[in-house]
Amino acid sequence: MIHVSRSHAGVVLLAAVAPLALAGCDSVGRSAELAASPSPSLPPLTVAVTAPVARATGVPVSAEIGAKVAGGTVRSVRLVDDKGTVVPGALRPEGPTWVPGAPLAYGREYTAVVTAAADDGRTAQARTTFTTAARRPDAPEQGSGLYLFNGNTYGVAMPVAVEFIPGVPQRDRAAVQRRLFVTSTPAQPGVWHWVGDGSQVFYRPPTYWRPGTKLAVRLGLAGMRLSNGRYAAVDRRATVTIGRKLEMAVDNRTKRMTVRRAGKVVRTMPVSLGKSSTPSSSGTLVVMEKLASTIFDTTDELPPGEAYRTRIAFAQRLTWGGEFIHSAPWSVGDQGYRNVSHGCVNVGPDNASWLFGQTLVGDPVTVRGTERRIGHGNGWTPWNLTWREYVRASALPVPAALRNADRKVEPRNSVHSVDSRM
């Protein structure tokens, strides 16, 4: 097993959220509950702002605007700062709460106006004025990373993969998950799944993304305090595209890889997998990283006489533990017949070069028949679970129709030094 540097997620570009068509605001600095006069046969329409409360100070820059409505629904929210700048944002689909499209500014006064409407066209408004915290808290930062880069194209198995350093405590995961937003076009439902110590959380639909899907992702965490005493200081965003469907299947019995594009076989190639003392991992894996040239170095892991430091071409990472698909000219005679690697999928130079030119980060790789199963979280492993297993690790309730989806789901909006093995 070799040491290849684990790449960290980059900070992705912030993108503006399109503002809603919002009602006007004609006064500031007070909270009110107003009712539209109903006709004798209609219930009254009332609306009140529940958060932030009127004249609140020290409000986190992650604040959302909460409302309570009777006799109607929230139609719009208008949030304006003390310089008259309108803050864009959107209502949550599941309830009368409005989320700013970006963190609020420190030490600023804001006025929110909530407009509710009844089915018969009556409207009512309520407002509140509050002030955000004067400055960023003096607290350790909660690290986060998003393994999507704005404008890139990914394979159909690409999960929305988020990393936290340190892991998010169990008691905070529901609140954090509520601030993780994914919109897919065309709409495909999905669920967040927490891994172990909370250092990783994945989002995926029940089946692979449709080719051509657009994903808009926001980690709206800036301003959140966690129970571990840390403070989330950064919002992250990415808008990406899902490319064509390409799948790789590796069979230890035949020692061959089959490559399919859009369901059709385009190439088969002999492979050599991990020998019995260092077996390759079976399961559904995902290409995590592509390196045209790198160095595998096992000098800190293997005893003298077994360790090596070797330059490798066309390496495609499958696990954090150091399993790759890569060119292995030294094992060409073994490929298709016997396993001689330290856990990687060895292929010949020509096949490795061709495959490297075909794949995207996010393409699925299914390995079958080896002596070891992939450990959950050792790479982007959410596809290695059944859907019912997967949804159990959401920190928020999953709607019954989505929880029981298994294979068929009706589309709907979802807002919601290198180490390696040879």
UniProtKB/TrEMBL annotation:
<keyword id="KW-0012">Acyltransferase</keyword>
<feature type="signal peptide">
    <location>
        <begin position="1"/>
        <end position="23"/>
    </location>
</feature>
<dbReference type="InterPro" id="IPR050979">
    <property type="entry name" value="LD-transpeptidase"/>
</dbReference>
<feature type="active site" description="Nucleophile">
    <location>
        <position position="344"/>
    </location>
</feature>
<keyword id="KW-0133">Cell shape</keyword>
<dbReference type="Pfam" id="PF17964">
    <property type="entry name" value="Big_10"/>
</dbReference>
<dbReference type="InterPro" id="IPR041280">
    <property type="entry name" value="Big_10"/>
</dbReference>
<feature type="active site" description="Proton donor/acceptor">
    <location>
        <position position="326"/>
    </location>
</feature>
<dbReference type="GO" id="GO:0016746">
    <property type="term" value="F:acyltransferase activity"/>
</dbReference>
<keyword id="KW-0732">Signal</keyword>
<dbReference type="Pfam" id="PF03734">
    <property type="entry name" value="YkuD"/>
</dbReference>
<dbReference type="GO" id="GO:0008360">
    <property type="term" value="P:regulation of cell shape"/>
</dbReference>
<dbReference type="GO" id="GO:0071555">
    <property type="term" value="P:cell wall organization"/>
</dbReference>
<dbReference type="GO" id="GO:0018104">
    <property type="term" value="P:peptidoglycan-protein cross-linking"/>
</dbReference>
<keyword id="KW-0961">Cell wall biogenesis/degradation</keyword>
<keyword id="KW-0573">Peptidoglycan synthesis</keyword>
<comment type="pathway">
    <text>Cell wall biogenesis; peptidoglycan biosynthesis.</text>
</comment>
<protein>
    <recommendedName>
        <fullName>L,D-TPase catalytic domain-containing protein</fullName>
    </recommendedName>
</protein>
<keyword id="KW-0808">Transferase</keyword>
<dbReference type="InterPro" id="IPR038063">
    <property type="entry name" value="Transpep_catalytic_dom"/>
</dbReference>
<feature type="domain" description="L,D-TPase catalytic">
    <location>
        <begin position="246"/>
        <end position="368"/>
    </location>
</feature>
<dbReference type="InterPro" id="IPR005490">
    <property type="entry name" value="LD_TPept_cat_dom"/>
</dbReference>
<dbReference type="GO" id="GO:0071972">
    <property type="term" value="F:peptidoglycan L,D-transpeptidase activity"/>
</dbReference>
<dbReference type="GO" id="GO:0005576">
    <property type="term" value="C:extracellular region"/>
</dbReference>
